[in-house]
Design brief:
The protein is of the alpha/beta class. Helices cover 47% and strands 13% of the residues.
């Protein structure tokens, strides 16, 4: 169990990522190739990405370079997931190139020591080797992550809506409590129940960045070096049988699902409870419940209980349908 210790200043500086972190998603997606655990949640992505990597002749690069550099183990190099990646892929790759050589060699050596077959990773310590690595990461991102960017952003937006509700209802204390059950908030300590290490991390006023991740599975992940800016990468929940890309939906939304359900679907864009939807649409609680159940069964919204209320947010399919409908030109009466 990992224990993260907060001070009052850390609570003030705790925040949540607003966009998917490209290097963390690269890292954790590579972990998905190294185990069958949770494969059902990524079945479509796995099948399509394997074919795309093969078509672009990137399979050997992934096997011989990226998988050894990003082992699914208790440790992988911190310099490969720099905080600058929160500003985008280019910023993150520049940070990898600019990482101090001493840090890079030490972290790669730690991986090589744990796995003798990864000794060639030391070649990535010099500028030429890191340039090769950065190109490989960019190519992999283009093939494995970028095609699902809209899906990842939609899932993160839904998660932010849920956590924002917890924050508004209960402050930062309510937000951290809402991360259960994989994490336990026992003020002033956040316990990561399934973490691979038994240690204590003291934030010492630096704060913590929460990063919901589509490709993180089961257990939250943190930076290994306690002196680096601290992040907590945790998994998004995966409903069964979802398609990351979704169908191409073009019909007018009201004609497709009815005006009342279209209004409720739009109301769920920023997250809304049943009572809020009833007030916003002037419908009865029973009508809202009837329509949200239909939208949920159609895979357009998901409903999650928070305290005594139920929060409705869009699924990736619902978000795609709403965006596509808004993008269509208005039809004459």
């Amino acid at each position: 169990m990992l224990r993260i210790h907060f001070t009052d200043m850390d609570l003030v500086r705790t925040r949540m990522a607003s966009v998917p972190d490209p290097l963390w998603e690269i890292t954790l997606s590579l972990h998905r190739f190294q185990t069958r655990r949770g494969r059902w949640a990524y079945a479509d992505w796995h099948r399509e990405t394997v074919l795309r990597l093969r078509d672009r002749d990137l399979g050997a690069m992934v096997r011989t370079l990226l998988l050894p550099a990003f082992p699914r183990a208790s440790y992988f190099p911190d310099f490969l997931t720099p905080s600058e990646a929160s500003e985008g892929l280019d910023a993150g790759l520049e940070a990898i190139l600019a990482a101090p050589q001493r840090q890079v060699l030490a972290e790669l050596g730690r991986v090589a020591h744990a796995d003798p077959h990864s000794s060639s990773l030391r070649e990535l310590g010099d500028a030429e080797g890191r340039a090769v690595l950065v190109k490989a990461l960019r190519d992999y991102h283009t093939a494995a992550i970028a095609p699902y960017g809209e899906h990842l952003q939609s899932r993160l937006d839904s998660e932010r809506a849920l956590r924002t509700r917890a924050l508004l209802d209960g402050g930062i204390d309510g937000l951290l409590h809402s991360l259960a059950p994989s994490m336990r908030w026992r003020p002033p300590v956040l316990e990561l129940v399934h973490h691979t290490s038994d240690a204590d991390v003291h934030l010492d006023g630096r704060g913590l960045t929460l990063i919901p991740s589509y490709f993180c599975w089961h257990s939250p992940v943190t930076i290994a070096d306690p002196d680096l800016p601290q992040v907590l990468v945790y998994p998004l929940l995966h409903p069964p049988a979802q398609n990351p890309t979704g169908p191409d939906l073009r019909p007018s939304l009201g004609a497709l699902i009815g005006h009342s359900r279209a209004v409720i679907l739009a109301g769920c864009a920023a997250g809304a409870t049943s009572s809020e939807l009833a007030r916003a649409t002037a419908m009865s609680a029973g009508s809202v419940s009837f329509h949200t159940r239909a939208l949920r069964e159609a895979g357009l919204i998901c409903s999650r209980r928070h305290a005594a209320t139920v929060l409705h947010t869009l699924t990736p399919l619902g978000a795609a349908l709403l965006r596509r409908n808004r993008a269509l030109p208005a039809q004459p009466p």
